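Dear colleague,

Thank you for sharing your sequence with our group. We've completed the structure prediction you requested, and as agreed, I am returning the results in plain text so they can be pasted directly into your records. Please verify that the sequence below matches your submission; if there's any discrepancy, let me know and we will rerun it promptly.
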Amino acid sequence: MNDKEKNFKLLGENRTRKAIKMIKLVGNLANKSHYSYSKADADKICNALQNEITAVKARFKSKKSREDIDFTL
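Please find the predicted structure tokens below.
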């Protein structure tokens, strides 16, 4: 395994673990006993996450990069 592959695996595992942890924390916001939110806000969060997952999949399939997109409710 060359250095680029090792680096990819190391960063990929760490970043994926962090992303999963953050997604779980976002999921905690669904607890209605602690938070109040509209269906529109919940849908906006879910759509933003889904759009980024779709973009990541596309980036792995092509060589083009994608600009960062800011998210606000």
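Summary note from our side: The mean pLDDT is 92.

Kind regards,
the structure core
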